[in-house]
Amino acid sequence: MRQKITLLSVLLSILLLGACGQSNQSDEEFLTEFDGKLEHVHGIGYMGEKGIAFASHDGLKFYKDKKWNATTKQNNDYMGFNVVDKGFYTSGHPGKGSKLPNPLGIQKSTDGGKTLSDVAFEGDFDFHSMGVGDINHAIYVFNGHGNSQLSSGLHKTLDEGSSWERVKGEGIKGEIVGLAVHPTNEKMVAVSTKNGVYLSKDGGEIFSPLEENLNGTAVYFSENKLWYGTFHSKPKLTSYDLEEETKESITLPKLEQDAVAFFDKKQNTDEMVIYTYQNHAFITKNKGEKWSQIVTSGSID
């Protein structure tokens, strides 16, 4: 009898410990209708039933079925935001009233942003350029200033931040502004810089140029393609077939002295979303044949 009671106690303890990292707050309590200004967006992504997430300087905003919602808690200044198959990874700074350290280092959430857990460098770094694989969760970061925790340059971790490796990044020209990691192949990573777009197939050691002598803006991987934005007198969005090594130009909406800052694609569909440097957002459900504007200069439509 004592053995049964002990076993039950252990099981209850495990269940309680597992629940500690999750919020008991319902979606109805966590989300509220949003009709404000969308500014300082540092990442976007399709987040399951919640819709499209926009990571802003005062928390997450969600767009779904022509409706907008904002979070009521965890209204942090998110940067380096990456949606993955089981939540998201982010860096940035804590919001008003938050007990999180400043800067955030790398945090992750598996419950839509209700709770965050430390991955690495909590209180030490704020990564603006960070890429995370959708399924493999391989993390690449660019760090402009080093300290005792991490030297400057391009680094990666393949074990949730337990160990880090500095990679050469040979072939990259210009300041890195965007990072993307292939969803299943942790050795494939792309960067956009002020001089072009570069692709590595060996874990970040050597990069080959896909575009040069222009501004690279956004980079994003699907399973078979790399999608990237550029600007050279006018904005452009390109899909690059990773197997065939061919390029296809995607028709963009009319953008005046603007370019694609962030891009995401809904899995197994032709639906895509872009966010631009001039704080506009557009959605297409037919691979660019027709775009619908949902944000205009930061004002939601």
Describe this structure in words.
The chain is mainly beta and about 300 residues long. Helix content is about 10%, strand content about 45%. It contains two helices and 26 strands. A hairpin with a 2-residue loop joins strand 25 and strand 26. It is globular, with a radius of gyration of 20 Å. The chain starts with a helix and ends with a strand. InterPro entries: Glycosyl_F510_1955-like (IPR054817), WD40/YVTN_repeat-like_dom_sf (IPR015943). It comes from Pontibacillus marinus BH030004 = DSM 16465. Keywords: Signal. This is Sortilin N-terminal domain-containing protein.
Please give the share of residues in helix.
under 10%
Largest sheet, in brief, is: 5 strands, antiparallel
Q: Can you count the beta strands?
A: 26
Distance between the termini: 64 Å
Q: Taking strands numbered 1, 2, ... along the chain, how are they ordered across the largest sheet?
A: 1-5-4-3-2
Tell me the Rg in angstroms: 20 Å
Strand content: 35-45%
CATH class of the domain at 128-240 and 255-265: Mainly Beta
> What is the CATH architecture annotation of the domain at 128-240 and 255-265?
7 Propeller
Keywords: Signal
Protein name: Sortilin N-terminal domain-containing protein
InterPro entries: Glycosyl_F510_1955-like (IPR054817), WD40/YVTN_repeat-like_dom_sf (IPR015943)
Signal peptide: 1-25
